[in-house]
Amino acid sequence: MQLTQCVHRAVRQTPDLPATIFGDRVRTWAESADRVARLAAALRDLGVGQDDRVGLLALNSDIYHEFLLAVPWADAVVTPVNTRWTPSEIAFSLQDSGTSVLYVDETFAPMVPQLRELAPCLTTIIGGAAVVDYLVDTHEPMPDSRRGGNSMAGIFYTGGTTGHSKGVMLSHDNMIVSALGSCAAGTYVQPGGRYLHAAPMFHLADCSAWTARNLIGGTHVMVPSFTPQGVAEAIERHRVTDVLLVPTMIQLLVDSPEAAEHDLSSLRHLVYGASPISEAVLDRAAKRLPGTEFTQAYGMTELAPVATLLGPEAHHDASLRRSAGRAAPHVEVMVVDDQDREVPRGAVGEIVVRGDNVMLGYWNQPEETKKALRGGWMHTGDGGYMDDDGYVHIVDRLKDMIVSGGENVYSAEVENALAKHPAVAACAVIGVPDEQWGERVHAVVVLADGHEPADDELREHCKRHIAGYKAPRSVEFVEELPVSGAGKILKRVLRSRHWGSSRDR
Amino acid sequence: MQLTQCVHRAVRQTPDLPATIFGDRVRTWAESADRVARLAAALRDLGVGQDDRVGLLALNSDIYHEFLLAVPWADAVVTPVNTRWTPSEIAFSLQDSGTSVLYVDETFAPMVPQLRELAPCLTTIIGGAAVVDYLVDTHEPMPDSRRGGNSMAGIFYTGGTTGHSKGVMLSHDNMIVSALGSCAAGTYVQPGGRYLHAAPMFHLADCSAWTARNLIGGTHVMVPSFTPQGVAEAIERHRVTDVLLVPTMIQLLVDSPEAAEHDLSSLRHLVYGASPISEAVLDRAAKRLPGTEFTQAYGMTELAPVATLLGPEAHHDASLRRSAGRAAPHVEVMVVDDQDREVPRGAVGEIVVRGDNVMLGYWNQPEETKKALRGGWMHTGDGGYMDDDGYVHIVDRLKDMIVSGGENVYSAEVENALAKHPAVAACAVIGVPDEQWGERVHAVVVLADGHEPADDELREHCKRHIAGYKAPRSVEFVEELPVSGAGKILKRVLRSRHWGSSRDR
Predict the structure, then answer these.
(1) In this structure, what are the phi and psi dihedrals at residue B373, rounded to the nearest 5 degrees?
(2) Could you give the CA distance from residue B389 to residue B382 in angstroms, rounded to a whole number?
(3) Mean pLDDT of B172-191
(4) Nearest Cβ partner of B326 from A13, A331, A355?
(5) Residue of A261, A218, A210 whose CA lies nearest to A240
(6) pTM metric for this prediction
(7) A1 and B326: CB-CB below 8 Å?
(8) Where are the domains of chain A?
(9) If 0-12 CB within 10 Å is exposed, 13-18 middle and 19+ buried, where does residue A278 land?
(10) A44–B contact, CB cutoff 8 A
(11) What burial class does residue B107 get, using C-beta atoms within 10 Å of its C-beta: 0-12 exposed, 13-18 middle, 19+ buried?
């Protein structure tokens, strides 16, 4: 299967239907396909060859859609960049993946000189929409390379427990199997209609919905990035039918006074991921969006990304609503002990997943790959249990990761940054409950002798080393950290102060 | 992907849900899975090794379901037998595929001595349900071989233009991609509910719905074979939600006085294939089944099988209703000339299809395979055109094939049989419109000197050589056949007398 197949089908079936709507700019499938084929030719002309990596550092737009198709059309591999990372984090991912050509939109243009310095692999920067238009205008359409199957479609960087991000290699089949399987369940992106890219397109959660919308046809609507008002306006203006949001975005959308004026009645289906939704937010969302069905998708980049789905009916059941749903049609899900043996129902273990959506591996990390995929199952690092009906309940992240506003933050990364500050003697970073962010990055710090508590200073320090969203939003100073007999910091003890004993995530 | 994956998922999610309902016999997914794993062990014990072919000659039942899963579980290949064929046709397919182990149910037991004689490849006959139960009871469950991906799942025999049937090799991925893609379109087998196997399970149309139901979960209900009353009873008694039928069956169901007493209101979705439905039958069906949505699927065994789908909305449009729908999410469809160049919209050419559902090839027929798959596209042999919205309209079968009651009949086979009769000087076999069968096998015969018209005698003669459903249902005697300058019989001229000029199929 090929990510570009949808283009050929759409041109035959719906040439005059809008493929993309971005602000006032509407491009039909026929126009979009033509631009893709010309942009692919331009990439070739810029020296992009088979399997070369083409990076995208940009907010959401119709041009993002065109690059996501033009890169495989030219037989190359896409590396979407996390726009929230610092220049050094971005440079690491570009350098690690050996990305030579990078599209940078107007928003990120100021970062280019620093990226050029930090990532010497970069040979060509395509700077802004006008340059893309110029490339499109000056090249003839090339035939589709028909790249697909087990060939790499993209390298998607995710945070890592070791403090360095890892490149997840996903094939065309990986991404298409996840999208087809999720659609087949009947509770993902719905046939027909208009999907709104409100979540960042560089993130596989949104990228997967993009793949699904392409497969079953319809229209993409993009807003550059999430704002409650911008999303509400786009839904009303373009009669958007489905959208994927993280719970934080849902909360902002339904609570926003600016969004309140807009008519959201066209929205029939909302998929949310990354973390369960709080009862309070779900209730408010159901009131604000009475005609909208909710589906939760649980997964990870390594799973391209969907593992389980919790459909609209299950949302009517208060206990199921706190689960992550059941294995989607394309996967098997199992909970195992540390010897990879399936544990009894109800017992907590690691969630492992098997299916054709499981990544090819980590880029240039054969050992990490082997470890993650041992026995043919993707080891998610998430702790959880399965009930008697196969519903998966996530209780802990074995990988020590925080999901804040839909972004994964690995504690180790934040702890590494904190530890560089002279005032920090010891620290532990955990996720604590937060009405707005789902989880909030929270640091527990033991001060070095002679230093005074200064949480602002520590936050600023972190932001110089890691992305702003990873920096602790709250800091707590303590005399000492709870440790086990072996000297390991007992994060469970720290977390229990915030989550209480009833915490099931 | 693996056909058996569904078993592992269903056992985790719905162990107590009925997997199969056959008459009064209900087996849960846990029970069914256990029987599958034991039956697989028994097959191994009977000498079935990796890649060996296991045949199924049986009416629909829960045991058919168990074999369809046990054979890949044991790492083998299934060869479902067309139950309507004559012993010599069946023997040809068994011998050609080298099938060593054959399950034969009670209905076909009388055929065994003849099959043993005609197909010496057969080493083991598993005769009847009681023997299957014995095998299940006397073997321990074996672990799933996890056969899947591009490995062969089955060899499915179809009629051939040359007069001999060909074995279509389908992989696990072929079958699963077709089922996932069709489900993703939202107009195939629906999530949840109960699917009724009323069409023969040996046929890929039903087998594909079986795959889909397994993927998205739910229950299989089987009747041994189609009868209007049996189907109506099963729908009422088991609250069946979806079914696949050929138009002939729909007509019989909605017109049957016996079926009229039964409550069919549980039926939410009906897929029909093989041929378009006549307006008259569709209107009567819509009246009898007011809560049922209709979808047409067009495809062929070589496409595992779905190429295009015509969803419920399109059925409200009189002109679309006569089309075969549009390319499903997993395929591309194109209409080409004899040089394989795409023709303009509206122009008639051959329908070709591309996608991961396209067969591995014809068993032991590399030349036929190369011809059918040239340029990476499956050449369907069906003539048709595509309208501006991508709807495919079938106008003729380049392969000279008749679809009667959902079965493919190749004219060449019937003509070969007819020609063996001393009274037949020349003949041509065509499909003519028939209210009950969609198309009826019709023979146009020029008698040899001194012979009298005797259509009954000719029909009986044919039935001795080919399956009963292939024998002409009507015979017309003429002085001469219309021929072209090159001496080729002009079937178009013969057909026009029956179909009129407005015929679009």
Answers:
(1) -105, 20
(2) 19
(3) 94
(4) A13
(5) A218
(6) 0.86
(7) no
(8) 403-499
(9) middle
(10) no
(11) middle
Predicted local distance difference test score (pLDDT) of residue A394: 86
The CA-to-CA distance between both ends of chain A, in Å, stands at 36
B180 touching A (Cβ < 8 Å): yes
Which residues of chain B make contact with A216, given a CB cutoff of 8 A? Answer: 184-186, 329
Tokens linked to A368: 């990490």
Nearest CA to B207 out of B240, B162, B168, B250 is that of B168
Collapsed DSSP state (helix, strand, coil) of residue A380:
strand
Contact between A345 and A333 under an 8 Å Cβ cutoff? The reply is no
CA A408 to chain B, closest CA, distance in angstroms equals 28
How far apart CA A429 and CA A418 sit, in angstroms, is 9
Residue with tokens 């050094």: A88
- Tokens standing for residue B198: 């009323």
How does pLDDT run across A153-163, given as a tens digit for each residue?
Answer: 999 998 755 56
Contacts of B149 in chain A (CB under 8 A): 356
B5 part of contact set with chain A, CB < 8 Å:
yes
Domain spanning B401-499: which superfamily?
ANL, C-terminal domain (3.30.300.30)
Share of chain B above pLDDT 70, in %: 96
DSSP state for residue A342 in the 8-state scheme? B
Distance from CA of A330 to the nearest CA of B (A): 7
Judge: B186–A190 Cβ closer than 8 Å, yes or no: yes
- Whether the CB of B3 is below 8 Å from some CB of chain A: the reply is no
Hey, which CATH number is domain A403-499, 3.30.300.30, 3.40.50.720, 3.40.50.620, 3.40.30.10? 3.30.300.30
The rounded distance, in Å, linking the Cα atoms of A152 and A390 is 32
Interface contact flag, B184 A5, Cβ < 8 Å: no
Across B11-38, average pLDDT: 98
Q: How many A×B Cβ pairs under 8 Å?
A: 102
* Contact with chain B for residue A442, Cβ under 8 A: no
B8 interaction partners in chain A (CB closer than 8 Å): 332
Q: Residue A199 contacts by C-beta under 8 Å, 6 or more apart in sequence?
A: A205, A206, A226, A244, A245, A246, A249, A406
Look at A184 and B14 and tell me if their CB atoms are within 8 Å: no
Cα–Cα distance between B462 and B425 in angstroms, integer?
A: 15
- Tens-place pLDDT, residues B27-43: 999 999 999 999 999 99
Residue type, A455: D
**Number of Cβ atoms within 10 Å of the Cβ of B283:** 12
Report the pLDDT value the prediction gives residue B405, as an integer from 0 to 100: 85
Using a 10 angstrom Cβ sphere, with 0-12 exposed, 13-18 middle and 19 or more buried, the burial of residue A487 is: exposed
Distance CA A70, CA A52 (A): 13
Q: Which residues, including other chains, have CB under 8 Å from residue B42's CB and lie 6 or more apart?
A: B135, B136, B138, B139
What value does the mean pLDDT take over residues B457-466?
91
Asked if A382 contacts A399 with a C-beta cutoff of 8 angstroms, the reply is yes
Indicate which of A2, A8, A13, A309 best probes the interface with B, i.e. most B CBs within 10 Å of its own CB. A13
Reported residue count of chain A is 505
Rounded Cα distance between A418 and A466, Å, is 10
Complex ipTM value: 0.85
- What is d(CA A376, CA A250) in angstroms, rounded to the nearest whole number? 36
How far apart, in whole angstroms, are the C-alpha atoms of residue B241 and residue B205? 18
Give the per-residue SS3 of A457-487: HHHHHHHHHCCHHHCCCEEEECCCCCECCCC
Question: Measured between CB atoms, does A451 come within 8 Å of chain B?
Answer: no
How many angstroms away from the CA of A405 is the closest CA of chain B? 29
- pLDDT, one tens digit per residue, over A192-210 is 899 999 999 999 999 999 9
Q: Average pLDDT, stretch A93-112?
A: 97
